[in-house]
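Request:
You are asked to prepare a plain-text protein record giving the amino acid sequence and the backbone structure tokens, at your earliest convenience.
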Amino acid sequence: MSEPEIRHTTVDDGIARLTWTTDLTERGWQAAVDVVRRQVAAALTDHERVEVKVAVDDAEAQRIATWSGMRREGIQRGRIGDVVVYARLADDTPVHEPGGFRALLNSFLPRKRGIGQMLIRDESTGSAGPRVLMCQLTYKDDWDLPGGVVEPGESPRLAVAREVEEELSLQIAAGPLVLTDWLPPWGGWDDAICLVFDGGVHPASIAEQVVPQPREIRAAEFLTLAEIEERAADFTARRVRAALASLAGEGPAYTESGH
């Protein structure tokens, strides 16, 4: 049987791109991997980088690219269809070594967005129940708990304290985890895990110490649950209620969109 057509061409200084015909995949993915792996090695003899772009719906080609030692770098959008970009660099750790294999797996295994929020209450004990510090945001009409996205490699507990200091100029250490709330895809956002940490009970006067970050925060106030339901999105109000219930030992520590 003749070798299926596969080749690499130079597309930029030091960069080669692989292309192959459909008869490669028809031989089975394991046989195809052997062919592609050899072509990758050949391309890297005189290039610093070799890449391949495969259609987002071509699972077989993605599998071949991965097990040929090419790391998934992301999706390139295009007018005639999106493609997944895979690449290998000349100085990448060999796949047969533990570090190289872990890097390969890390390039395509799912990654979940993490959000850290803080549940800060004041000392009021009226009939309306506890009051919670909420933020009026600049980029949407809804009010939300203080916090933000956890950066890659950052501790969620440190992230939420950092966000509170950056957005409100309040230095409050994050206490124990109160609630884990899964957020389904919504409004153009991918799904995420929201971790709500205990921010403790403070004098109501700390709201006067807030210095809102103008880019993201309009204002911050202590609100009752009834006020939160008026000003926040329904799923945010559910999350606050669930966090308070969990803190009091009266509800689960895990919810999905506050349920």
